[in-house]
Write a structure and sequence with these properties.
alpha/beta; six-stranded mixed beta sheet
C-alpha cells in the first residue's frame, strides 16, 4: 500500500495543494513552521479520522474558511482507491470513496498508516489517556469495527455520568442507571477484550524494537492494568462473558462511591497500558533518550503488527510517517532506525535540516516553504 497523490483545500495553512508521491522514501524538508507537519497530519486524518495534534476538527479548517477538503489517492495491491473527506465547521463531515458517497467511518482501513511525531513522547511521560488512545487507534487500524465499539462506549460513559449527576441532584432514578450499567458492561467487555489481546500481540514487537534502537541491558515491556484486577491482563484472550460479569460485579460494588463522586469509576476508560524498562516503570525512571526510544518502539511495534496482518485484501502494509524524528536522536539511533524501516513500501519523513536524515532515508526530496511545495528530485 502507498499514497500516490494528496490534494488539500483550505486545510490548515494550505488554501490549495497538489502533491504526488512515489513508493519508497519521500523526505519533506523545510524550516519549522512552513507546513510540513500539516501534510502528514492530513494523511493521518484520512487514516484515523482524527489529528495527532488537536482533539477537534475546527483547527484543521483554514482560518476564514467554512470547510476543508482532503483527497488522497491510494494504491492497494493492484487497484487504486480515491478517498475524499470534507470537514465542515457547521455540519457533519462528509466522505466519498471512489466518487461515491460514504459515511466517514467507511474510510477507516482504506489507508493504514503509522505516524511517529514529537508528541509521542507523551506516550511514555504523559497521562494514561494518551496510552489508552494509542491502543484504541491501533485496534481500529487492525479491525475498523472497533471504531463503532469505541464510539458507543464513550457515549455510554458520558450518558451514565450525566445520569449519576442527575440522581445526586434528585432528578434521576436507579432503574434507568441499571440500563446504562448493562450497556457499559456489554460494550466495555468487547473493548476490554480487544485491548488485552492487542497488548499481548504488541508486547514482543515492543521488546524487539527497543532492543534494536537502544541496545543496552534493560529490556522494554508493556502490560495491561485493568480496574477489574491485575489478573485481567494475564490471559491473551479473556472470555467476553467473564469480563462482562466482572464489570457488572465491580459496578455494583462501587455504586455508592460513584453516586457520591458522580463519575463512572469502572471500565476500560479507567485502565492503563503500562510501559516498563527492566523492572521499573518507564514513567519517572527512563531518561529522555530512553523515553524517545520507547515511544519509537511503540510505533515501530504497531507498524510491524499491522505489516504482519495485512487485512482481508492482503494489501494493507501501512505507510510509515516519521515527523521530525531525527533531530531528537543521536547518530547511532538514527542509523539503527533507518535500518529498521528501510524496506518499508512507503516512508514519509519530515525534517527541518536535511543532514539530520540518514542517507538511506533521504529519498525523493520535497521542499516545503510558506505553504508551497517544490519537488527537488
Amino acid at each position: 500500500m502507498h499514497v500516490t497523490h494528496l490534494s488539500l483545500a483550505d486545510f490548515r495553512s494550505y488554501p490549495a495543494l497538489e502533491l504526488a508521491f512515489e513508493p519508497g522514501v519521500t523526505t519533506l524538508v523545510g524550516p519549522n513552521g512552513q507546513g510540513k507537519t500539516n501534510l502528514v497530519e492530513a494523511l493521518g486524518y484520512v487514516s484515523t479520522l482524527g489529528s495527532h495534534r488537536v482533539a477537534t476538527d475546527a483547527p484543521l479548517i483554514r482560518l476564514g474558511a467554512q470547510r476543508a477538503a482532503v483527497r488522497v489517492a491510494i494504491r492497494r495491491g493492484g487497484r487504486s482507491v480515491l478517498v475524499e473527506l470534507e470537514l465542515v465547521s457547521s455540519a457533519p463531515n462528509r466522505a466519498r470513496v471512489n466518487r461515491a458517497p460514504a459515511r466517514p467511518r467507511d474510510v477507516l482501513g482504506l489507508l493504514r498508516s503509522v505516524l511517529f511525531a514529537p508528541e509521542d513522547l507523551a506516550l511514555v511521560k504523559g497521562d494514561p489517556d494518551g496510552r489508552r488512545r494509542f491502543l484504541d487507534d491501533l485496534l481500529v487500524a487492525r479491525a475498523p469495527r472497533f471504531a463503532g465499539i469505541r464510539t458507543d462506549y464513550e457515549r455510554v460513559v458520558k450518558q451514565r455520568n450525566a445520569l449519576l449527576k442527575a440522581i445526586k441532584a434528585g432528578k434521576g432514578d436507579l432503574g434507568t442507571l441499571e440500563v446504562w450499567d448493562d450497556q457499559l458492561a456489554t460494550i466495555g467487555a468487547e473493548l476490554l477484550a480487544g485491548r488485552v489481546y492487542l497488548t499481548h500481540l504488541l508486547a514482543p514487537h515492543v521488546c524487539a524494537a527497543y532492543a534494536e534502537l537502544a541496545g543496552g541491558t534493560l529490556e522494554a515491556g508493556i502490560g495491561y492494568r485493568s480496574t477489574l484486577g491485575d489478573d485481567i491482563g494475564t490471559e491473551p484472550r479473556p472470555a467476553r462473558e467473564m469480563l462482562r460479569a466482572r464489570l457488572v460485579e465491580s459496578i455494583v460494588r462501587r455504586r455508592a462511591v460513584e453516586l457520591e463522586r458522580v463519575v463512572t469509576l469502572v471500565g476500560p476508560h479507567r485502565d492503563e497500558l503500562t510501559i516498563e524498562l527492566g523492572p521499573f516503570p518507564a514513567k519517572g525512571f527512563a531518561s529522555h533518550g530512553e523515553s524517545w526510544s520507547l515511544a519509537l518502539a511503540l510505533r515501530l511495534a504497531s507498524y510491524e503488527l499491522l505489516r504482519a496482518d495485512p487485512g482481508p485484501d492482503g494489501d494493507g502494509e501501512p505507510v510509515l510517517v516519521l515527523d521530525d524524528v531525527f533531530a531528537e536522536l543521536d547518530t547511532g539511533r538514527r542509523d539503527r532506525l533507518s535500518a529498521l524501516v528501510g524496506d518499508a513500501e512507503q516512508v514519509i519523513v519530515t525534517a527541518a535540516v536535511p543532514e539530520d536524515v540518514p542517507v538511506a532515508l533521504r529519498g525523493a526530496r520535497v521542499d516545503v516553504r510558506a505553504g508551497e511545495v517544490h519537488r527537488i528530485h
